[in-house]
Amino acid sequence: MPRLVNIRRSVFEEDRRNAAAVREELGRRGVLLVNLIGSPGAGKTTLLEATLRKNTERPEARRFRCAVIEGDVATSRDAERIAALGVPSVQINTEGGCHLEAHLVRKALGALPLDEVDLLFVENVGNLVCPAEFDLGEDFKVAVSSVPEGDDKPLKYPHLFHLVRAVILTKMDLAPYVRFSPERFWGDVEKLNPSARRFLVDSIQGDGLEEWLSGLDEWLEEKRRR
Ligand SMILES: Nc1nc2c(ncn2[C@@H]2O[C@H](COP(=O)(O)OP(=O)(O)O)[C@@H](O)[C@H]2O)c(=O)[nH]1
Ligand SMILES: [Mg+2]
Ligand SMILES: [Zn+2]
């Protein structure tokens, strides 16, 4: 069925074009785009809230100007949580779709004050599978996994953990209450992706956020040097 193949190919090509357009625009502006991927409830939005709060505590000279694109199947709740902190945010509703695609991100860019942004986060739809497959034009993807999800997630979702620039393990404060082997979790991350940066975070108390912000500093500087 060559016709079917052609249609599929044209869809993928269009997606590639949209991802390239996002990358080109943000490259020109020196905006770093970070695509956060994790299961529903892993703590992605809470991590963003904590990151944005921590950012405003830093000395003015080291502060990022941030914005957030929220992807969810339904509701604008997460974008409202971000907007409550005074940070520009756009909600994308996929209406059933289980991942974001580049054309949606491209459209969302038009609703953000990009002249006043250093760091743009995308919170992808909660899902460890297909968000890994889609290029949104981001600089890199980050896996967000939480302690109560269990220590076997890297091995069960190897594709995601293999391709990310960083792995953030959230809800470290819950480690005493659940069975979770840090050795197994990080040992498997090491096997899948030895160069991934690792962050251990408690978004409620704020532990680990300074390291995460320092990583973002480095990545932004690296992008702007290029
Ligand atoms: N104890 C604890 N709870 C957390 C942490 N991060 C998120 N949560 C809780 O986990 C639940 C889901 O968080 P949310 O950020 O909405 O997850 P998302 O679906 O990945 O965006 C909420 O009840 C959060 O308060 C954390 O570091 N420690
Ligand atoms: Mg969320
Ligand atoms: Zn999907």
Question: Average pLDDT value?
Answer: 96
Bound molecules: guanosine-5'-diphosphate, magnesium ion, zinc ion
Poorly predicted ranges (pLDDT <50, ≥5 residues)? none
CATH class group: Alpha Beta
Structure annotation, total helices:
8
The name of the CATH topology is Rossmann fold
What is the CATH superfamily label?
A: P-loop containing nucleotide triphosphate hydrolases
Account of the protein in words:
It is globular, with a radius of gyration of 17 Å. The protein has eight helices and seven strands. Strand 6, helix 7 and strand 7 form a beta-alpha-beta unit. A seven-stranded parallel sheet has the order 3-2-4-1-5-6-7, sandwiched between helices. With 226 residues, the chain is α/β, with parallel strands linked by helices. The chain has a single domain, classed as Rossmann fold.
Give short descriptive properties of this protein.
226 residues, alpha/beta, Rossmann fold, seven-stranded parallel β-sheet, 8 helices, 42% helix, globular, binds guanosine-5'-diphosphate, binds magnesium ion, binds zinc ion
